[in-house]
Amino acid sequence: MGRHIHSEDVVDSTQKVAQRHVFEGAPEGTVLIAEEQLSGRGRMDRKWHSPKYTGIWMSVILRPNLPPAKAPQLTLITAVAVVQAIEEMTGLTPEIKWPNDILLNGKKVTGILTEMQADADRIQAIIIGIGINVNQQEEDYPEELQPIATSLAIEYGKKLERAELIKVLLVKLEKLYSIYLDQGFYPIKLLWESYAISIGKNITARTITGSISGRALGITDDGVLMIEDSNGTIHHVYSADIELEK
Ligand code: BTN
């Protein structure tokens, strides 16, 4: 992981740069990093605020020989790797909000966006976009983000060396990915659940087709969230925004 690192100053989005590399046949483990993104992208077509020199804006290309339905598992592996890297660098333990928001003190410190190119039965490439807010101060955020976003520097009280964090993250990701390829998803699922905040809690999941409220039971072996509503019906949620009930 990270044997091929392409680092640029300003890009539109590292996801787009990665797509070009995938098209040109980039090997598994290729990493694209930028100092600044002019059109950083988030989940559900949102923008991702990616100012210069403050965060880690990177995309990792993986080419697992797996069916497309396994793609969400790779997002969950990445979330665990980010949590472990932050833990190692700061001693703080972030929490994961399904599917892949990483929070410190209830505010978002990292987002993960997974995009895939696949045939009907095989993944060609997965591009995992990771945005880590590292050295921003509160006033660096636009007003609308201040109540919901944070950075490692804000929570840890000191600035961090971004290159060091990238190195630690790639080591963790490589290790978890190889556990996954050798032993399957189960060991990763246990780790993921140990960091997850939503499991066992009452939540509302807002999907594109409507809302589902109930108790989050856990994730399936494919990384799908299970919610039990008040009638005892279990819903499988593939993509949603989650709100924890107070
Ligand atoms: C989210 O909505 O939580 C996901 C945010 C993902 C942001 C990262 S930053 C690097 C990569 N390039 C992008 O344009 N987006 C991802």
Automatic annotation (TrEMBL):
Residues 1-181 form the BPL/LPL catalytic domain. Transmembrane segments: none annotated. One of its GO terms (biological process) is protein lipoylation. Biotin binds at Q37, R41, G42, R43, K108. It catalyses: biotin + L-lysyl-[protein] + ATP = N(6)-biotinyl-L-lysyl-[protein] + AMP + diphosphate + H(+). Its EC number is 6.3.4.15. One of its GO terms (cellular component) is cytoplasm. Keywords: ATP-binding, Biotin, DNA-binding, Ligase, Nucleotide-binding, Repressor, Transcription, Transcription regulation. It comes from the Bacteria. One of its GO terms (molecular function) is ATP binding. Belongs to the biotin--protein ligase family. Acts both as a biotin--[acetyl-CoA-carboxylase] ligase and a repressor. This is Bifunctional ligase/repressor BirA. It comes from Cytobacillus praedii. The lineage of its organism: Bacteria, Bacillati, Bacillota, Bacilli, Bacillales. The chain holds residues 82 to 327 of 327 of the full protein.
